[in-house]
Amino acid sequence: MRWSKHPVRNQARHLAEPPEPSAGGWHGRRWTAIVGVLLLAVSTVVGVAGTSKAAEPTIVSLTFDDGLVSQLAAAQALKAHGLVGTFYITTSFIDNSGFLTRANLNTLAADGNEIGGHSVTHPDLTTLNATAARAEVCNSKTTLEGWGFTVTNFAYPFAAENATAQSAVRDCGFATSRGLGDLRSPASCADCPVAESLPPANPMVTRAPDQVASSWTLADLQARVTDAETTGGWVQLTFHEIAVGTDPSLTISPALFESFVTWLAARTANGTTSVRTVAQALGQSPAPAPSPSSSPSPSPSPTPSPSPSPSPSPASFVDVPVGSPLYTEVSWMASQGISTGWRESDGTRTFRPGVAASRDMMAAFFYRLAGSPAYTPGTSPFADVTPQTPFYKEILWLASQGITTGWEEANGTRTFRPTVAVNRDQVAAFVYRFAGNPAYTPTASPFADISPQSAFYTEISWLASQGISNGWTESDGTRTFRPGLPVNRDQVAAFLFRYNSAFPA
């Protein structure tokens, strides 16, 4: 599973919510022409020889994308030399083969490393609409924070960004997001700057060299640092596989990484360079204290300390084991941060699949499905929804989008009835409106118990036409929808999962 960077830009200049309380060619640029490589070599030599060293130490951040299990080798090397890094995590990859586990993330954080966001499923955000982009970005942050991490910085998948992606990162509460390929690199961008400024000119696209590739040598890695030392500033180096014999283009060996870190630790010890997490470089968390010695002091063992017992994975509810009906749908809902379920007294996490979903739960589910967009509630349109009501913001957002109108009571007030269970026909209306009230004229009812006179006839028929609801096959062979039946939480997971499959953008 691998990804490619967006098209190469002009080389001359680069442009640059709370959990439910009661509810449940690769990233790098293509090789430049031979003349470009020669120019790069010349400019590097001239820069080092002709410019005095910056008065302030250069800051280097070592960043690791995707959450690959081979990055544990890098984490061990960093710990052995008293250094730290930033690990940008694609949340749906965690606990899968070839990727880090929740326990690994806990260990990384306990060792002083930073955990950052890298989306839920690693899409090219520039191909998504605003709602989908926000969902990818916001849900990654919500999930990581739900796992107990402080998450303030993001890295664009594929380094692909545009105004929509930048807005998603900003609206979801990230302070910065890293791009790639806007600083001088071994085989590209010869006339680019050698370091990013602090603070960055554009926090939503912080500049960095190309990601580290298998073609990089120890000299290439060292040059990214020594070049920056001529001007001062910030260099973010981006790594993927730290292994032998895996990906042919974005892998470097543990031996090469160890050699580079050993060299880097010596420069940190003598004050030439400071290695910091992204959060430390940006002043979001305390910077490391300078080493009092002139040489690095390795720890007695590079083996990580035992991690604290991790909390159960949101996708591992004890009451929805593998093989359960709608297991895939419930697990997807959790992995997207749409539902966190309940933490029980014994420390396990449950989903309670057979519990009827209430209207306030549905407001929370749709708000999160939309990517938890930035929204400040105004005056409540509902007499029974106040700022003290659970999911107050989510309910008012739902109303602001026209997804719910509530009830008009006999006294003229409007109510939402937040704790009332949602029936299946009402869910059909919510999903249809969430989709934007698409133009649709039913030709015939797909269900024997739904007629043109039924409430939400169009919405239910549309739901069936999109494969979002299949209903039941009765003993007489007819198919029914059972519109007045309360919908359970696992059935909500199925509706939302199928909606997302039908409308992945």
Account of the 3D structure:
The strands form 6 sheets. Strands 1, 2, 3, 6 and 9 form a 5-stranded parallel beta sheet that branches. The chain has a two-stranded parallel ribbon with strand order 4-5. Strands 7-8 form a two-stranded parallel ribbon. The radius of gyration is 26 Å and the shape is elongated. The chain has helices at residues 34-50, 71-80, 102-110, 130-146, 163-171, 218-229, 254-269, 278-281, 327-335, 359-369, 392-400, 424-434, 457-465, 489-502, and strands spanning 58-66, 86-89, 114-117, 153-155, 176-178, 234-239, 241-242, 251-252, 273-275, 342-343, 349-350, 407-408, 414-415, 472-473, 479-480. The two termini are 20 Å apart. The longest helix has 17 residues, at 34-50. α4 packs parallel to α5 (163-171) and α10 packs across α11 (392-400). The chain is built from 14 helices and 15 strands. β14 and β15 (479-480) form a beta hairpin. The protein has 505 residues and is of the alpha/beta class. 31% of the residues lie in helices and 10% in strands.
Defining key terms:
505 residues; alpha/beta; five-stranded parallel β-sheet; two-stranded parallel sheet; 14 helices; elongated; disordered N terminus
In brief, what are we looking at here?
With 505 residues, the chain is of the alpha/beta class. The chain is built from 14 helices and 15 strands. It has helices spanning 34-50, 71-80, 102-110, 130-146, 163-171, 218-229, 254-269, 278-281, 327-335, 359-369, 392-400, 424-434, 457-465, 489-502; strands at residues 58-66, 86-89, 114-117, 153-155, 176-178, 234-239, 241-242, 251-252, 273-275, 342-343, 349-350, 407-408, 414-415, 472-473, 479-480.
